[in-house]
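Give me the fold.
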Amino acid sequence: AGAYWGLFDAERKAKFPLEGDVLALPAWKHWAAGAAIFSVVLMGIFLFTRNSIQLPGMLFFGLMANLAASAIFWSASIGAQQYQTPLTIVFWVILILMQILAVVILLIESLEIAEVVWHKKTVRTFEPLLPATDFRYPKVSLHLPIHNEPPNMVRKTLEALAVVDYPNLEVLVIDNNTKDPAIWEPVQIDCERLGPRFRFFHLDNWPGFKAGAINYALEQTAEDAEIIAVIDSDYVLSPNWLKCMVPYFDNEHVGFVQSPQDYRDLHISTFKACCYWEYAGFFNIGMVQRNEYNAIIQHGTMTMIRKSALLEAGKWSEWCICEDSELGLRLYEAGYDSVYVKDSFGKGLMPDTMSGYMTQRYRWVYGAMQIIKAHWKSFLPSKNSPL
């Protein structure tokens, strides 16, 4: 029992000095020193690599670094005071490693906030553009992939596309692998009703999921189209999206232009409101920060790609479940720049349930792992890296 209570431990040594003050953590000075040194190292790295942040941002990140270091060393000190078996050592190591991963995420989020809120001067802030009077309006081919989508929902998307204020536009609607004609035939009828701007394609037993569908659309795209736009089937567009964003392609170095994902159903439930603000944090902080480094994540909706760049990069990757982000990485590897405008030009729908939310996140994480596996060499800190 000496291992767990009493004055002496299992080796018959006093657990604490028998003279003087009794301290709950006798080695607290060592733990405190370790936490302080660790936080100083974090701050040193931060100050050395991020000198464009104002003093309040530095203080904010310093506070978060100190909290992170204190949390890790406090947890480790608890384990160090207890008698450990080989099994409990394994669990403590796993616990500390998981905590370190959580702290890394916390520090990344803190860095994003510091750089967006307290940045001294932004150099890549993009705003919606108004076309000049002599703007030539390059042809845009907008691709709308659908699969088993409610016809009424898709109808709202199509009707919004019908009033988009852009004179040189075609809309290709690609239904892939929807078995029930009662679901896809109403969409075909809507496309015929809305006029020659719209073309509908139904694909049976088509491989490649969404990427396969939009690769097929690429083959059907008008020869004179210069820009490919992609949106999800639930998105209701603002009429001026194309007019405000297409002019950025006048810069021949721009490979893709991205607008944020936004949602119109946040007031339906508390769950959706929480989802909305979680999404908003990424698109109003994380993407803004990444844009400063020309390193945004391309998304499969509210995105435009230079057609020649898309063909040069090798079209959409049908092996990757996150074909949009994977394409964005290949465009960066090919030397193209990106543009991110944080103004909302379209709103879609969020997952209705926690199960749907988790499925969405699983797909994103799985796709990210596929991308890392295929492109890991590009992420290495090397002069030969194309990024």
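The chain has two domains: 28-117, 139-379.
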